[in-house]
TrEMBL record:
Domain called Helix-turn-helix: residue spans: 13-60
Pfam families: HTH_17 (PF12728)
Matching InterPro entries: HTH_17, SinI_DNA-bd
Organism ancestry: Bacteria, Bacillati, Actinomycetota, Actinomycetes, Pseudonocardiales
A GO molecular-function annotation: DNA binding
Full protein name: Excisionase family DNA binding protein
């Protein structure tokens, strides 16, 4: 949902290739992150899919950490 309460439309899941492109890393690095539990994913018919919410939470966490680390940050 957006701040206005209107639901946003977007993918529910991303495949490994999409996650690798978004995070600018190799597919193998994404597979490793999944296998170590760093990145939550589900396996559907032999394919790993990462919930979009996992990526959103990862981004929000990174932004919050960067803000707290910035001089004069929150």
């Amino acid at each position: 949902m957006t701040n206005s309460g209107v639901p946003t439309v977007g993918p529910t899941f991303y495949d490994v290739q999409e996650v690798a492109a978004m995070l600018k890393m190799s597919r193998m690095t994404v597979y490793r992150a999944i296998s170590t539990g760093e990145l939550r994913a589900v396996r559907v018919r032999g394919r790993w899919l990462v919930p979009a919410q996992v990526i959103q939470t990862l981004v929000e966490s990174a932004v919050a950490g960067a803000t707290a680390d910035a001089p004069g940050g929150a």
